[in-house]
Amino acid sequence: MRSLKMMEGCKGPQVYAINPSGTTTTTTTNGFGGVGEKLLQNLLSDSVRSRSNHNYQAIKSKDEVNSAVLAEALASYGLPKTDQIEPHIEFCLKPMNFVETLADVYCRMEGCAQFGKSRMFLEQCALFRGLPDPKLFRKCLMSARLHAVDVHTKVVLSAWLRFERREDELIGVSAMDCCGRSMECPGSALVVGYNPESATDPCMCHRDRGKDTGIYMDEECSTSSSRDGDEEEDFDMSFCIGDDEIRCRRFNIASLSRPFEVMLYGSFMDSRREKINFSKNGISAKGMKAAEMFSRMKNVDSFDAGIVLELLSLANKYCCDEMKSVCDAYLASLVFDMDSAMLLFEYGLEENSYLLVAACLQVFLRELPNSMHNPNVSRLFCSSEGKDRLAYVGHASFLLYYFLSQAAMEDDLKSNTTVMLLERMGECASESWQKQLAFHQLGCVMLERKEYKDAQKWFEAAVEAGHVYSLVGIARSKYKRGHMYKAYKLMNSLISDYTPSGWMYQERSMYCQGKEKTMDLSTATELDPTLSYPYKYRAVSKAEENRLGPAISEINKILGFKISPDCLELRAWFLIALEEYEGALRDVRALLTLDPHYVMFHGKLQGEHLVKLLSHNVQPCSQADCWMQLYDRWSSVDDIGSLAVVHHMLANDPGKSLLRFRQSLLLLRLNCHKAAMRSLREARNQAASEHERLVYEGWILYDTGYREEAIAKAEGSISIQRSFEAFFLKAYVLSETSPDSESSLYVIQLLEEALRCPSDGLRKGQALSNLASVYVDVDKLDNAIDCYTNALNIKHTRAHQGLARVYHLKDQRKLAYDEMTKLIEKAKYNASAYEKRSEYCDREMAKSDLSMATKLDPLRTYPYRYEAAVLMDDHKEAEAIAELTKAISFKPDFQLLHLRAAFHDSMGDLTSAIRDCEAALCLDSNHADTLDLYQKVQQRAKEQLPT
Is Disulfide bond there in the keyword field (predicted)? Predict the structure, then answer.
């Protein structure tokens, strides 16, 4: 049920269209146009008032009223128009040859010095940001933190890892809380030194010291400590500050620094004086007493923060490195929230205190994006002067501004803050890829802000730095400025100069008309069937011709494998025009699950308001009815329909954590990872009991790569109360962590315990299916059949696939084929069923099933691998390579790369085989088969070198 290949997507551009009547709709303060506001008011009052420019008759039927309101809304806002939708320009790095770039990064990574690996992993992060699987990005981010050398890098990467988990959204969790893992612990980040082995250890720090100590700037320092009775300290000099005389030992003070040594033992008059006037050196008598004590004890633990700040200033003035280091570390330990960080940050900058500034910086980063709403923090990070001040103390870097700009873009893409942070990021860029990324993202933001001249300038800078993909931005900017032919020529030359890709034809289609446009879009889909714009354009074109049925069929093609808000909005729009309000309501509810703040109808009508409009035109449902609908949708593998039902149920019972959890499971199945994690965090926040909260925290930990911690949460939950979800969580994580037979037997026990606990049929069906799968692993096939059969009895339709596998293992291929046929007949989304059924039939039937699977979901890699293997068996090596190359061009999957490397090896093309192995290992450095193949091919390549 929980997907292991979670895609980050679900965000996409909204559909904007001109008003067909040519009139301008005024946007009101509540978020939708004036016409929409009046229509909503009409609906809520169950009446439609006459208007001066319309001759409406009173409508008595409530259904007729609602239908009229929706019809008028559609007419007022207008169906989408083809000339108002545009393809999305990606914000990430997009190399022209992704495979070669991956191979190059892997080679440089292997040859990189140990201390430079963190920088290389950051480059990997930038490459992986554009891939659909967010786990690859997070894995690289963790590796970069693992190999971080300096405190600054540790602080930024630890905060970024936390930001990716959005732990700040968990109720009761503060920014500086230690999560128990050294890699993300705020205390560990401030430890100087390089030890990648310890970064994965459990964290033993305690962050209570700063909270207990507090920051008191005016209290007496404790400098009158005992001197062990009457023991004489052999004082031989004094510092006079005002009327106070601070007795000191000359040797101890001289040992603080070279300047003090020269002052007290050099050829100066002070060197021979017993009393030295120190009144004009900016330190109080209390501070000097503290300095004397430090000269003996070498610590500042007994002083309050105000005195330590004085010592820090004195240490800077007289180059007392040891005292500065101790004061810096002590003050850094006092920073634990925004108040303390704001209070001490300026001191840290003024006194050039590396650790203190790092501690304050850490708070600001862990409070993102909220901390950037503080004008002082924003001014520091956004201005050139602030960047220079940070640089002076060693805390301005490309890494810092890369993180800040990504957080700012998520918070408000078009804001001035985002622009300024990206500018600072560009100023800090030193390597080619860094400049490419900074300039390209600046161009994208300027394009969104409709500042087309500036956008073109930044895109041109990115191209000059080597980012060829930014030519798309230049073309778009020229087009927006009225130079359509220049944009067309630019994209035409790009297609001529490089290996054509789907996105090239997609972009060129923007600048041509008629058959040429249609052909470009067809070629784009052929080269990259995952691009959404061609489907959207074709669907809208058919809608303009009043062919709404074919328009819905077209948009269904991409929604079958890639769900996004903009495509759901389009389909809802078409369904409203057809007065199929139930289907439209389903899509709007699913859309709002992905993006709760989405605004419909060209950014004029809040999605929640449209739900109210549509709800009056469908049969009302009680919570019991919704549960029945959820069972039906779940059993028919209708994930979008299930999402809509859960959204409806949450509207009736918004505090139900169980429903939020179900929502997260559905979103994971749809590869909507960010939305799934948001739902999971909400489930945790709404949990009514401690044992339930621990389960949801366990799933969050599992989904972010912390399996042992997830198991600990499950065990903690079980210790409080035995529950289905706690046992299921522990069993699930253990099955992924320890696949050996002994662990499998323990997983069976856990799942059996889960099934003894109360739960509903949806979850028990999943548990039975998982239990059957483990029985198969330990060769207990009859037990597996019983479990799968019981799962099917409670409508867990996916159990057909497991049952087919068991029949296949029992050499009953006909029964296996029949089971998969039943799944195909029942499932609404059945690409995986066609793919699996292909394993249980002859070659021709298998090719037919796999062709259907690819048509329904081009992201599935098995059909390409199978077809390539068949071609190789038929000695059609070139065709086999071409089949894999076609898939790799839009889905650089390590399995596809491994297979192509093996094919190249068998053909004697060792250079290509090495390249593909390196690219695959860049995606998964621990893949044993690829490592083995890589070593063998390298050895053969060495043997072929001339002696």
Answer: no
Q: Fill in the amino acid letter for 393.
A: V
What's the CA gap between 364 and 379, in Å, rounded? 13
Spell out the residues 6+ positions from residue 656 whose beta carbon is closer than 8 angstroms to its own. 649, 650, 686
Decide: residue 244, CB within 10 A, 0-12 exposed, 13-18 middle, 19+ buried. middle
> In this structure, what are the phi and psi dihedrals at residue 284, rounded to the nearest 5 degrees?
-80, 170
Looking at residue 561, the DSSP 8-state letter turns out to be T
| Alpha-helix residue ranges (DSSP H) falling in 794-876 | 799-809, 813-826, 831-837, 843-856, 862-873
The angle formed by the CA atoms of residues 376, 379 and 383, to the nearest 5 degrees, is: 160
371 alpha carbon, distance to own chain's centre? 20
| Alpha helices by DSSP H, 578-652 | 581-594, 600-603, 607-615, 623-635, 639-652
H/E segment holding residue 718: helix 707-720
Q: Which residues make Cβ contacts (< 8 Å) with residue 25, sequence separation at least 6?
A: 19, 33, 34, 35, 36, 76, 77, 604
Which own/partner contact pairs does 903-907 have at CB distance under 8 Å and 24+ positions apart? 903/868, 903/872, 903/877, 905/933, 905/936, 905/937, 906/872, 906/877, 907/877, 907/881
H/E segment holding residue 238: strand 237-241
Per-residue pLDDT of 57-82, as tens digits, reads 443 455 555 666 666 666 666 778 88
- In angstroms, rounded to a whole number, what is the distance separating the alpha carbons of residues 93 and 436? 7
Backbone angles phi, psi at 221, to 5 degrees: -80, 155
401-417 pLDDT, tens per residue?
999 999 999 999 999 99
pLDDT for residue 24 is more than 70: no
Distance of CA 470 to the CA centre of its chain: 23
User: End-to-end distance of the chain based on CA atoms, in angstroms?
Assistant: 56
Res. 266 pLDDT band, cuts 50 70 90: confident
State whether the Cα torsion 316-318-319-321 is positive or negative: negative
How far, in Å, CA of 578 to CA of 573, rounded?
Answer: 9
Torsion of CA 57, 58, 62, 68, to 10 degrees: 30
Backbone angles phi, psi at 548, to 5 degrees: -70, -35
Integer angstrom CA distances of residue 556 from 25, 66, 649, 700, 899: 30, 27, 25, 32, 32
CA distance 670 to 196: 36
**CA distance linking residue 759 with residue 725, whole number of Å:** 8
Whether 271 and 309 have beta carbons less than 8 Å apart is answered as: no
Query: Rounded to whole angstroms, how far apart are CA atoms 863 and 838?
Result: 9
Kindly report the CA angle at 568 between 564 and 571, in degrees rounded to 5? 145
Mean pLDDT of 332-358: 93
Write down the pLDDT at residue 152: 96
For residues 791 and 799, the answer to whether their CB atoms sit within 8 Å is yes
Q: Is the peptide bond before 375 cis (omega within 30 degrees of 0)?
A: no
Q: What is the dihedral of CA 566, 568, 571, 577, to 10 degrees?
A: -90
CA-wise closest residue to 829 among 642, 638, 571, 591? 638
Determine the 3-state secondary structure of 179 from DSSP: coil
